[in-house]
Specification:
The structure holds 2 protein chains of 2 kinds. By secondary structure, chain A is α/β, with parallel strands linked by helices. Chain A is 33% helix and 20% strand. Classes of the chains: A alpha/beta, B alpha/beta.
């Protein structure tokens, strides 16, 4: 077995537990998309996105990896409630899946790499870093935006975090205008 | 560091029943499995049609059954550590349920002692599980990983698609047809046992196929709509073929996501054109959801199993429901089951948010 590759954190951001976030246009049900979008945008702006274009004309492939224990529990609860009442809203077609807001983040920051969502059993950040090491080590992306989020009030620490990571020693493969 | 990834066993279920032989008979026979929905009350919905499996009860039990079939095919003895990568749903059945409970329940039901991971990226979830399992093996982090997913239609999934007017109002799923009206849902899923060359050698296993390439991309275009030119689809196909060392002209079969929705199929056809270029007329394409229905988070696994069966049986499954092929970005459609030597088969899937996944399977 090989060891897990070491990741470098290019930039890091979060949304505090007591921070009030404005709703994200297109999403009205839950804070989940707003929290993710704000954490992601702060992190990517800090890293100087959009990334520069390297000498050979290739744009770096940056993907997104979302990891959470409960994911969007607010929207899931609403969907269950509406299913029971027989009044399902059409907006749940995209709001009920976390990939929708990730698609919006990808669009807003021109991220064309792999997008994964993982339901964590334990420490979401730890699981995200492990899967990031696997994905980056495989060469399927040059960098990954790791997102974690917990809407539960009892969850300790920030409600959403974002880390842009790459494999250590990949300086020649990715250039950020920092 | 770049270990081969072998498929040594597959299992499946669908509206045709449990087992890969039932799946093969239905899909390669071009049988449309749709009928009235009896599992729950469809009163008030605009469409009352899906492809359901009478014997299926829940997705965890279905995934376990598929896994057992895959393990039996592979003659897996159960002594070595086995990891799990599962594509699953986010439709929690209880308010205190964790989305990862499905992966935990499948692993515990099978007595697996390796690591486990639950992917929930909608219609790319099971494909992501296949990709992740392949990455674990190719990177030397695991010697055997069970990958896949299962979907059993429930009222919530049906209601969400119905309320969004995404279901085909004419009751037919018509992939790539100019008159396509939308999607129809279906029960289904698949599990594949992936093994390293070391594991295959040590066990004396006989592979049924090889996962030689994969890629995941995003359109970076819209939260719900696909890129109209299929940019992410094209990139996923190109990168998966490149990883597998297969030129477009040497690809023997492409199983498309092909949901029968106007936007998806148009974008996908455009992406296939871009990726295959001058060889687009030569590569047979089919959308097997015309027989099975759309199995949502499990579709990447079910369709990977269909690709493996195409390789094994030297046959191409047809696109049922396709009567008047769309003339924009025309493809080389498989209109009825064909005999063919299938050395390489690519399965592609897409999700809300512009996600795309491509998995390349080759004869072992």
């Amino acid at each position: 077995m090989n060891g897990t590759p070491i990741l470098d954190v290019v930039s890091r951001s979060h949304v505090d537990a007591d921070e009030v976030v404005p709703p994200l246009p297109g999403f009205i049900v839950s804070e989940f998309p707003s929290l993710l979008w704000i954490a992601a945008t702060r992190c990517l702006v800090q890293a100087g996105f959009p990334p520069s274009i390297s000498g050979d004309g290739d744009v770096d492939r940056v993907g997104i990896l979302l990891c959470s224990r409960m994911l969007d529990s607010t929207t899931l609860a609403l969907a269950a409630e509406q299913t029971k009442a027989g009044t399902l809203s059409p907006i749940l077609f995209y709001q009920a899946v976390p990939t929708a807001v990730l698609g919006l983040i990808a669009r807003d920051h021109a991220l064309t790499g792999p997008v994964s969502c993982i339901a964590a059993e334990a420490d979401a950040a730890e699981e995200a870093r492990y899967v990031a090491a696997v994905t980056l080590g495989d060469g399927d992306a040059d960098a990954l935006l790791l997102l974690t989020i917990e809407l539960e009030a009892a969850a300790p620490g920030p409600r959403a975090t974002a880390e842009l990571v790459r494999l250590r020693g990949d300086d020649d493969r990715i250039e950020y205008a920092r | 560091m770049t270990a081969e990834v072998y498929v040594t066993g597959v299992g499946a279920f669908s509206a045709f029943g449990f087992g890969v032989e039932s799946l093969a008979a239905g899909v390669f026979g071009g049988v449309e499995a749709f009928g009235p929905v009896n599992r729950f009350d469809t009163h008030g919905f605009t469409v009352d049609r899906a492809a359901t499996c009478l014997e299926a009860d829940n997705s965890v039990a279905a995934a376990i059954a598929c896994a057992r079939e895959a393990l039996a095919m592979a003659s897996w003895d159960g002594d070595d550590p086995l990891s799990l990568a599962l594509g699953s749903t986010l439709r929690a059945s209880a308010s205190d349920a964790y989305p990862a409970d499905a992966g935990r329940a499948v692993a515990e039901g099978l007595g697996l002692t390796g690591g486990r991971r639950t992917f929930v990226n909608a219609c790319c979830a099971a494909a992501n599980a296949v990709v992740h399992g392949s990455q674990l093996i190719r990177g030397g982090r695991a010697d055997a990983v069970l990958v896949g997913g299962a979907f059993v239609l429930d009222r919530q999934a049906y209601g969400i698609f119905d309320s969004a007017r995404a279901l085909a109002t004419d009751g037919r799923l018509r992939p790539f047809d100019r008159d396509r009206k939308g999607v129809l849902l279906g029960d289904g899923g698949g599990m594949l046992l992936l093994e390293s060359a070391r594991s295959v050698r040590a066990r004396g296993a006989v592979p049924v196929a090889r996962v030689s390439g994969w890629s995941m991309t995003d359109d970076a275009y819209h939260l719900a709509k696909p890129h109209p030119e299929g940019a992410g689809v094209a990139a996923a196909i190109t990168q998966a073929l490149r990883r597998g060392g297969i030129a477009p002209r040497h690809l023997d079969y492409l199983n498309a996501h092909a949901t029968g929705t106007p936007l998806n199929d148009a974008a996908e056809a455009a992406g296939i054109h871009t990726a295959l270029g001058a060889h687009v007329d030569e590569v047979p394409v089919s959308g097997t959801k015309g027989t099975t229905g759309h199995t949502l988070e499990a579709s990447g696994a079910l369709e990977a199993v269909i690709a493996v069966l195409g390789i094994r049986e030297s046959r191409l499954p047809p696109t049922r429901g396709l009567e008047h092929p769309d003339t924009v970005n025309p493809l080389r459609h498989v209109l009825s089951s064909e005999r063919a030597t299938v050395k390489s088969a690519l399965s592609i899937n897409s999700s809300v948010g512009g996600l795309n996944a491509a998995v390349l399977l080759e004869a072992s």
